[in-house]
Amino acid sequence: MKEKLWAGRFSKASNQIADDFNSSIHVDSRMYRQDITGSLAHAAMLTAQGILAQQDYEQIVSGLEGILQDLDSGVLTIDPQAEDIHMFVEAELTQRIGDAGKRLHTARSRNDQVALDLRLYLRDAVREIRIQLDHLIAAVLEQAKANTDAIMPGYTHLQRAQPVTFAHHLLAYAMMFTRDVARLSDAVKRMNLCPLGSCALAGTTYDTDRMLTAKTLGFDGITLNSIDGVSDRDFCVELLSAMSVIMMHLSRFSEEIVLWSSWEFKFVELDDSFTTGSSIMPQKKNPDMAELVRGKTGRVYGDLMGTLTMLKGLPLAYNKDMQEDKEAIFDAVDTVHHCLEVFVPMVESMTALKDNMYAAAQKGFINATDLADYLVKQGMPFRSAYKIVGQLVAKCIREGRVLEDLPLEEYRALSPLFGPELYQTIDLHTCVEKRISAGGTGMASVQVQIDYITHFLAQE
Ligand code: ARG
């Protein structure tokens, strides 16, 4: 066992079980690139400020760059016994370049170092997720464009309610995903401040230039309170909450895809390559990908709740509890990433079964509101019209008919305001076309939505 970097104060080696319990290397080793990038910026700043000698700096740079190269190429593997990635890199550096390596940690603590590394890591991870969300929005947009003529029942309470186009329904999801992108970039704005230089908690006696380090690392500025700089994990909570909302949206979409691909609905056919069979039932084609996305939503909610709970009782400043932040947020990042990775091509390759949607739209009296509106436009108060149409629907249900089948006399028996144009009014195409209100399912509104999403993507 190598000597601990902090061994000086202790008269006894630490217990192996305690060491294993304490170590976070299995979780934080994925931040090695960010750790090295942060150290390079820190060393450059120390040198610019005259705190570190030029020749030490040069050794540190070549040492760190060598470690990065060797880790990237696999020549160097991360020691699973190391306490964490920060200790591993520093120990490796010192082993490679000697005393200059021991100077790197001047005016720095692991507390601000880990806060920095995590922000750097998440900044990249969020960029990735944003790109994936853009791809998803593009896939949904393409499906919407191909289905502006597909009339389906819109639902409330999962009961057929009013006719909409499949395009309109899909664009609802596109709108949600644009907000998800906005939430992520909003959280990044607050996260993109550099905590390095906060040191253990109180700042340092060295004349550091925190703005320089922040600039080198692409931050918009520095955190202004050193205690906050090392204690704050709001950025994790915000990102976890943004990711929970993404998963909630994906899960609702998944639920609909599961329903739509059932024989009961058969509104869509998933591509064979994104479904699975059954080990016993030869006829089965299961929407496992959508189900798994729905299922994994719970993990991300758990990551959010776990992090909030971990933080709630912590006194300022750093506490070791906070090491738990990474396991949760990395799990969430990975889960969202993998879900989007499969979800995008699943949506792209999904086929809308327009005839089945239309057939379903013809059942369930989803043009009843239009019939009531027709009477209102002839001068009848809405509540009276509502009642008459309700009676007509009840009659149809009793007799196994639909509104389109009833002869005009039967309509007129309930109100003389009914005329022959009513049949045109209750035609499903008319019902959709006449939904001219902004944001409605009418074609003009759907086109506005398509333009909005297209513009959104062009700006991304
Ligand atoms: N592995 C630690 C973490 O992830 C790094 C910070 C440790 N700081 C300390 N003073 N023990 O939180």
From TrEMBL:
<dbReference type="InterPro" id="IPR008948">
    <property type="entry name" value="L-Aspartase-like"/>
</dbReference>
<feature type="domain" description="Fumarate lyase N-terminal">
    <location>
        <begin position="8"/>
        <end position="302"/>
    </location>
</feature>
<keyword id="KW-0055">Arginine biosynthesis</keyword>
<dbReference type="Pfam" id="PF00206">
    <property type="entry name" value="Lyase_1"/>
</dbReference>
<feature type="domain" description="Argininosuccinate lyase C-terminal">
    <location>
        <begin position="365"/>
        <end position="433"/>
    </location>
</feature>
<dbReference type="InterPro" id="IPR000362">
    <property type="entry name" value="Fumarate_lyase_fam"/>
</dbReference>
<comment type="similarity">
    <text>Belongs to the lyase 1 family. Argininosuccinate lyase subfamily.</text>
</comment>
<dbReference type="InterPro" id="IPR020557">
    <property type="entry name" value="Fumarate_lyase_CS"/>
</dbReference>
<keyword id="KW-0963">Cytoplasm</keyword>
<dbReference type="Pfam" id="PF14698">
    <property type="entry name" value="ASL_C2"/>
</dbReference>
<dbReference type="InterPro" id="IPR022761">
    <property type="entry name" value="Fumarate_lyase_N"/>
</dbReference>
<comment type="pathway">
    <text>Amino-acid biosynthesis; L-arginine biosynthesis; L-arginine from L-ornithine and carbamoyl phosphate: step 3/3.</text>
</comment>
<dbReference type="InterPro" id="IPR024083">
    <property type="entry name" value="Fumarase/histidase_N"/>
</dbReference>
<keyword id="KW-0456">Lyase</keyword>
<dbReference type="InterPro" id="IPR009049">
    <property type="entry name" value="Argininosuccinate_lyase"/>
</dbReference>
<keyword id="KW-0028">Amino-acid biosynthesis</keyword>
<protein>
    <recommendedName>
        <fullName>Argininosuccinate lyase</fullName>
        <ecNumber>4.3.2.1</ecNumber>
    </recommendedName>
</protein>
<dbReference type="GO" id="GO:0004056">
    <property type="term" value="F:argininosuccinate lyase activity"/>
</dbReference>
<dbReference type="InterPro" id="IPR029419">
    <property type="entry name" value="Arg_succ_lyase_C"/>
</dbReference>
